[in-house]
């Protein structure tokens, strides 16, 4: 596997693959890789001839009081995992390479409406940072497809909308959330949890299953959410949000809707966990 921070080298290699008539998939990450990331790589290899991965802890998507400095950097372990998974090209730029003028002078991309609620409201500027870096990485790598985990459901919708709105020549593929045996969604932030908190965190999936079952059985969304929030609080969480929305648009549910997504964000101690579950009735 080639590891480089050089934009020209990335473009040269991808161009060479394309000139040979071969397809290229892209998996953008912030590193500290777990099995969810590796699943993206293995799924990418089913859909393309070559896989490019990026590792970049993007300062633009972190808020002023968030854990940018504390975010785990595990490059050597990540490289070994990617080699074993079959990735051929790893892009590891620095902030100076990505934002040579500094964040305050960087052109940015912002997706309206979809990015304004939920995580967008809880983390102002977060989705501006996500959309900007993903758009820039797409332009650098110039892959045919890009794969993202559905665990970050709102992020996936923001990126999908950006690609459509800006007519970017890349297909976006969402891959189902990878979970631990306990039901906890795999996340780099799980590393911040104590052993006890990891047990507490399993309540998120149980609560989402409860809401889906209640709504499917005819209970009102409002009552199901009220009970579910209390269950999470009783399990030791501090709530950020718990909502049921139209799965395709994130719009509030109407009587005509049949496909839904449950969106959850809650804190265990200082660790913010997110998850989601789609269901139909």
Number of DSSP strands?
A: 9
* N-to-C SSE string, H for helix and E for strand: EHEHEHEHHHEHEHHHEEE
Rg over alpha carbons? 19 Å
Spatial order of the strands in the main sheet? 1-4-3-2-5-6
Mean pLDDT: 97
What best-fitting shape do the alpha-carbon axes yield?
globular
Reported for the largest beta sheet, the result is: 6 strands, parallel
Q: Strand share of the residues?
A: 15-25%
Helicity, as a percent range: 25-40%
Low-confidence stretches: none
| Structural class category | alpha/beta
Distance between the termini: 46 Å
Number of helices: 10
Describe the structure.
- The chain is α/β, with parallel strands linked by helices and 281 residues long.
- Helix content is 39%, strand content 20%.
- The protein has a six-stranded parallel beta sheet with strand order 1-4-3-2-5-6, sandwiched between helices. A three-stranded antiparallel beta sheet has the order 7-8-9.
- Helix 3 links the parallel strand 3 (50-55) and strand 4 (89-91).
């Amino acid at each position: 596997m080639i590891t480089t921070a050089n934009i020209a080298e990335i473009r040269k290699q991808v161009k060479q693959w394309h000139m040979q008539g071969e397809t290229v998939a892209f998996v953008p990450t912030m590193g500290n890789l777990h099995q969810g990331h590796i699943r993206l790589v293995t799924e990418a290899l089913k859909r393309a001839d070559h896989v490019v991965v990026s590792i970049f802890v993007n300062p633009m998507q972190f808020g002023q009081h968030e854990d940018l400095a504390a975010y785990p950097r595990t490059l050597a372990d990540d490289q070994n995992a990617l080699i074993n998974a079959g990735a051929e090209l790893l892009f590891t730029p620095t902030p100076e390479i990505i934002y040579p003028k500094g964040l305050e002078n960087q052109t940015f991309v912002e997706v309206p409406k979809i990015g304004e609620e939920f995580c967008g409201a809880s983390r102002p500027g977060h989705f501006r940072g996500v959309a900007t870096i993903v758009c820039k990485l797409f332009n650098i790598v110039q892959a045919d497809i890009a794969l993202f985990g559905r665990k970050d459901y709102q992020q996936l919708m923001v990126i999908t909308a950006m690609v459509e709105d800006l007519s970017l020549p890349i297909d976006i593929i969402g891959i189902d959330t990878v979970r631990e045996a306990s039901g906890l969604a795999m996340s780099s932030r799980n590393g911040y949890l104590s052993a006890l908190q990891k047990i507490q965190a399993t309540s998120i999936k149980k609560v989402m299953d409860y809401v889906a079952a209640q709504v499917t059985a005819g209970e009102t969304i409002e009552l199901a959410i009220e009970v579910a929030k209390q269950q999470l609080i009783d399990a030791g969480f501090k709530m950020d949000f718990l909502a049921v929305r139209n799965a395709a648009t994130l719009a509030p549910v109407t009587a005509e809707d049949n496909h839904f997504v449950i969106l959850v964000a809650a804190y265990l101690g200082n660790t913010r966990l997110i998850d989601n579950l789609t269901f139909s009735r």
